[in-house]
Target: GNAT family N-acetyltransferase
Amino acid sequence: MPPQHDVSSSGPSFAPSLFAEDCLTASPAVRLRRLAPADAPAIAEGLSDFEVARNLGRVPHPYTLADAEAWFAGPAQDPDALRAGLSVNGALAGMVSLDPVGGAMQLGYWLAKPFWGRGIATQAVGAFVDFAFAATRLGAVEALHMVDNPASGRLLRRLGFAPCGVTRERSLARRATVEHTLSRLTRADWTARQPAIETARLSLRTPTTADVEETARLPADRPVGLATAQTAAMIGQLDEARAFILRAAREPRPANLRLLMRLKETGALVGTIGWRAAEPGVVDLGFWLGVDHRGRGLMTEAARAAIEAAFRWGAADAVRTSCRATDWATRQVIIRCGFQWEGSGLVRPTSGGPVAADQFRLDRDTFLSFREWTPAAFHLSAG
Ligand SMILES: CC(C)(COP(=O)(O)OP(=O)(O)OC[C@H]1O[C@@H](n2cnc3c(N)ncnc32)[C@H](O)[C@@H]1OP(=O)(O)O)[C@@H](O)C(=O)NCCC(=O)NCCS
Model:
């Protein structure tokens, strides 16, 4: 069942499989993953620290293993909440969650004290919020933080949350009523912070579930060139399109990034482009343009802008790509972007058997000098 969350409707639920796979963050050590009852001891250890519990309204102090086990047996089952474990180097170190509270979805998070002050929570909560907006139809996320918890306030501000009110709430651990600041991040504000590329004719944006149906209609044919399919959108059906979008939402940005290409003039979805970290300093670029839109230079226009973004945002020193040996149209796009031929070999696309492919590489220095004499008009915004 697809995630169908919409804060304006009642009784929505998140698909339990949303966090079946890890959600990666910009730091390889920090991940979001599905919680399991076996995490109860780690949760109890983290929340039994008064320094953690005092900033969380509904966590009592002392907090024991029995409390964590009771939480797994009860509230953790709520299908209207979205929750993820935060792991650092494979060990559970905290949690991030979205719970329905009074018609809104409220963000909550905590990190065990030994991990504080290293930017871990900002990274993990940021990845969670990005994932929640990309993978659901959520209209807004709210968060409450106690006015004497500046770390939480700064974290929310950094993620784009805007303060919108003050309220007094009960703190179980403090056994007192505490003043809180209410902050909100709307989908529009979140969207405005997402990586975006504008070329003369195209808008390139990260996908969300709102794009599923159109994405599923995209490939009238199977991708032929697609630089050969390592980042391919083999997306001819709704479930494949949804899986493609969820995969994109789980990837560690900006080391990996997938973008949907739309024509500015009509808003029509015409293709996909993206890169993925292959080895330190090197990203693999993949792209695909719908068959009806080929022959107008659109792919070269998008690829040149995406390559610039991969160098800037993905911190790449080199971009690699490949195309089927017989695919002259894709080869032309690749050559026009300044890639140098590196060799030939067998490449295994995301589906099907291995195909004969040519491999190409573009180093940062070559790209910079190439850009000098073939300036391109595009605008990158990292959000
Ligand atoms: C809030 C919490 C998750 C932050 O975790 P963290 O990994 O240490 O946070 P980060 O390192 O990402 O830092 C977040 C911001 O707070 C700032 N910060 C950290 N400690 C601070 C402090 N004591 N005073 C002021 N600012 C502080 C950081 O500098 C950073 O701001 P910046 O990005 O502008 O530099 C963690 O302290 C925690 O779990 N606290 C207890 C539970 C809690 O408060 N949950 C949130 C409830 S709303």
User: Anything to note?
Assistant: Residues 148 and 161 are 17 Å apart (CA to CA). The radius of gyration is 23 Å. The chain is about 25% helix and 30% strand. The longest helix spans residues 120-135.
